Structure formats: structure tokens, C-alpha cells
Amino acid sequence: MIQRRSALAALATLPLAAPRLSRADDKTLRLLVGFPAGGGTDAIARLLGEALQAALGTTVLVDNRPGAGGQIAAQALKAAAPDGNTLFVSHDHTISILPLVLKHPGFDPAKDFVPVAGFATFANALALSGGTPAASLPEYLAWVKKQGGQGNVGVPAPASVPEFLVKLLGEKHGLNLLAVPYRGSAPMISDMLGNQISAGVGSVPDLIVNHQQKKLRIVAVMGQQRQPVLPEVPTFAELGIAGFEDLPYYGLFAPAGTPTATLERLSQALAGVIAQPAVKARLSELGLSVGLMTSAQLASRERAYAAAWARIIKAGGFQPQ
């Protein structure tokens, strides 16, 4: 059975009855996660892991390797045997953004990884802590101005899309907004719940539960349209902040050299899992827009997303570190 290390692991305990697919061997399937237990990516991986375990008829273990925005987990995937027994559950930051902002990330997605399949897109969002006296993004910006024009905003990782958003917000409104990087969303949200930091930018899957429980307030989301799970929350574009319309993605990745037949078996299993009404509903509740992307489609989206952000990063004057 999957090891449960997080309160959000309860989301993965679903009464699934997926058809069992033939498996290559009896080894445990490891799902690498580049962020700590308790965050949105961890919850998603555990939900998928539970369902894949039933579909594949093999033990599935979620293996958290937090740190450096997923870099540690990505390097672990690169070092893994290409036998289909180690996969990486990742979103855009590690795969598309890190190679743009680090001189030596320790991996090259195009050479070291192969996409298995994509399963969802999602939106990043700005949320306010419970103790912050603002109910909207304009009110928050006005509040920061009254505080002397300086404010700290948490981000799950350095040199990330959330950090670039914070920088753009500050420049656009003449404020000194400092992005404070954390080792994942879980510790950032913990500080927000304790009112140690007034605001944070993270994915909707990371923030949605606390927003629904009114412990945090999501006040703006990325994307061209409002999120179905947050119909009351405007997009940044609606608020006059353009450039954040392209939505990031989630996918499964394997080490380069993994046999095609193995990739096809895993892709077929993932397709069946996300088609299950119970799984799709849970993922949707977490703020994901669920939909299968083939290996080729995910690779194409990965390249296009990286190209779009390369232009934004260069225009902002950021230098790879």
C-alpha cells in the first residue's frame, strides 16, 4: 500500500475498481515528487498512485524528494534505471522553468527524460493570509502602499513563475514587493496560516482547501478564464496584469531510454485512471483541469511553455544563476 505521510493523503483513499493491466515485473513503482508531503503535488501524486496501484496490480510508493524546486527529484529520475519502475510526477516549474533559470540544473529534460503522458493543467494564484486586512488584490496593493510600499510575498521556489509574478506586480504598481522563496508550498502555507507572511503565490491545488475553509483568501488567478472551482475570483488579466494567461501543466515523466512498450503501458494506465469519474472529480476539486495529453502532446506543450517563459524571463532582465 502507498505510505501516507500527509493529512491530504485522505484524498487518495477512493473505492476504485480499475481493470488490472499486465505489468512488466513485480517491482515497486516509485512516483517521485519534488515537493514536501502536505502540498498540492503530493496530494495529486498520492491520488494517482492509489488508482495506478489498482490499475497496474503492483505496489506504488510516493517518494518525496523535496528541495530546490524539484531539482533533487529530477536528478533522482535521471539517475534511475530506465525500466518503468521510477516515474516523476511534475508540473511546469521543474521541467520547463528550472533549465531557464539555472546554469547547471543537473539534468536536461530533452535528453534525460521522456514524457509518459500529461493529465491536467492548472492555474497559479495570489492568496492573502487571514490576518491581512484586504479582500481583493487592489485592496492588498493599497494596503502595502500604506505600509510604506514594502511587502513580503511567499513563493514555493526561487526563480519560479510565482517569483516573476511578484516582481511584475511590484514594478507595475511602484511597490517594493519581495518574493520570499520556500522549499515548496506546504511550509509557505504554514507561515501564511500563522500570519508570518501576508501573502503568497502558489498553485490553486496548493491553496484551494484553505481558501474553501476561509483560512486564506485567493484574490486573483492566472489564465485566460476564471477557474471553475473559483468562479468568484478574477484573473490577473481582468485586473489589468497581462502576460500570465498560459496555464502550466502536470505530467508523468520517465528516464530517457525507457522502452516504448513500457511507456505505452504506463500511458494507457494513466489514461484509464483519469477517466474514472471518482478520480477526475477529486482532481477537479483540487483545481485541476483534467485531460490526457499523449507523450508527443506533452513534449510539445513543454517546449512551447519553456519558449514563452524564456522571452518573459529575458525581458525581465533575470540572469541564470
How would you describe the overall organization of this protein?
The protein is of the alpha/beta class and about 325 residues long. It contains 11 helices and 11 strands. It has helices at about 40-55, 70-80, 90-100, 110, 135-145, 160-175, 185-195, 205-210, 260-275, 275-285, 295-315; strands spanning about 30-35, 60-65, 85-90, 115-120, 125-130, 150-155, 175-180, 200-205, 215-220, 250-255, 290-295. The strands form 2 sheets. The protein has a 6-stranded mixed beta sheet with strand order 2-1-3-10-4-11, with helices on both faces. A 5-stranded mixed beta sheet has the order 7-6-8-5-9, with helices on both faces. About 50% of the residues are buried. The model is unreliable at about 1-25 (pLDDT under 50).
Count of beta strands: 11
Quote the distance from N terminus to C terminus: 40 Å
Strand order of the largest sheet: 2-1-3-10-4-11
The residue-averaged pLDDT reads 90
Helix content: 25-40%
Q: Main β-sheet, in a few words?
A: 6 strands, mixed
**Computed Rg:** 19 Å
**Shape field:** globular
Poorly predicted runs are 1-25
Order of SSEs, N→C? EHEHEHHEEHEHEHEHEEHHEH
Helix/strand/pairing class, anyone? alpha/beta
Strand content: 15-25%
Number of DSSP helices? 11
